[in-house]
Design goal:
Strand order of the largest sheet: 9-8-7-10-11-17-14
Number of domains: 1
Helix content: 25-40%
Mean pLDDT: 97
Oligomer: single chain
Largest sheet: 7 strands, mixed
Number of strands: 17
Radius of gyration: 19 Å
Low-confidence stretches: none
CATH superfamily: Vaccinia Virus protein VP39
Strand content: 15-25%
CATH class: Alpha Beta
Number of helices: 10
CATH architecture: 3-Layer(aba) Sandwich
């Protein structure tokens, strides 16, 4: 099973030390109600080799050896990593194994990065981090510590697998909780929430929870689905959106700016808008499920299969 003690030791003398008042008990409770496959997934992480790698996190997430793995070794590594499918956010380049994930998360990172305050030396929270791809890119930008939170056990095991293959790098850590379970720490220099807001039944509560984790003057990076429209336009899907059941509110950019200002954020600005393309989200050998092509109207890709506007995403930056 995953051992969180090194993380506790890591934060004991950091601005996150107050988290130790609640976190160990929360994770003990979490361990009692994990997914039935969690033990199997955690065992995969144990089986992975510990290799002394040359690591590149600056323009990709990559680990390589001076002497490449043999074909047999690479096949065994591929076999183990495929036990952790589906791989949704990536890609990862690990000892000659290319984990070609459903999402080209590097596309999103390339859109976001130019607009960020420098991450060098920062303590960062990544909310809804998935398997942690963007966390490693934050480390590559010089972050002092990156903490990701995501309650999905499979994502935790995928993250730990990648971490082990990246020389067990401790600059990034994934904690299997939701932000609603975090006490207000006011300790992070930058907080990312990417691809989360539309899954929240109460989006204003989510924005307040993000603000409660930031130091005064800290930076929020919010990426979410949006629609075209004015300050009063918000899409509330009646049942599903792009086959997703848990999509509640998709605002226009002006409405989203209004929400952020309403909960107390300052200097709110939209820095990017982009329609999700079939090159960014697609089926691969590392995903057995449906993907974007299956979520769109087959005769009109400007609409979802339900008739709503096709996925369009915006990046907003604000200060606490």
């Amino acid at each position: 099973m995953i051992d969180f003690c090194p993380f506790y030791q890591q934060i004991a003398t950091s601005p996150l030390a107050a988290w130790l008042e609640t976190l160990p008990l929360q994770l003990k409770q979490w361990e009692k109600q994990t997914h039935g496959d969690y033990a199997k997934w955690a065992k995969v992480v144990e089986f992975l080799p510990q290799l002394a790698a040359e690591v590149n996190l600056t323009d990709k997430v990559e680990a390589r050896l001076a002497e490449p793995l043999s074909d047999g070794e690479r096949q065994r590594l591929t076999y183990h990593l495929k036990q952790l499918m589906p791989w949704r956010k990536g890609p990862y380049h690990l000892y000659g194994v290319h984990i070609d994930c459903e999402w080209r998360s590097d596309f999103k990172w390339d859109r976001v990065l130019p607009h960020l305050s420098p991450l060098n030396g920062r303590t960062i929270l990544d909310v809804g981090c998935g398997s942690g791809y963007h966390m490693w890119r934050m480390v590559g930008e010089g972050a002092k510590m990156v903490v990701g939170i995501d309650p999905t056990e499979l994502f935790l095991c995928q993250f730990e697998a990648v971490r082990k293959l990246l020389n067990n790098d401790r600059r990034a850590n994934l904690i299997p909780l939701g932000i609603e379970q975090m006490q207000p720490l006011h300790a992070f220099d930058t907080v990312f929430s990417m691809g989360v807001l539309y899954h929240r039944k109460s989006p204003l509560d989510h924005l307040s929870q993000l603000k409660n984790q930031l130091v005064k003057g800290g930076e929020l990076v919010l990426e979410t689905l949006v629609i075209d429209g004015d300050v009063n336009d918000v899409l509330v899907p009646s049942d599903r959106y792009a086959k997703m059941k848990n999509v509640y509110f998709i605002p226009s950019v002006p409405a989203l700016i209004n929400w952020l200002e309403k909960v107390g954020f300052k200097n709110v600005r939209c820095v990017d808008e982009a329609v999700t393309t079939l090159a960014e989200q697609r089926k691969t050998d590392w995903l057995e499920n449906e993907s974007l092509i299956d979520f769109l109207d087959p005769t009109d890709h400007s609409k979802t299969i339900e008739g709503y506007p096709a996925p369009k995403r915006a990046v907003l930056i604000a200060n606490s």
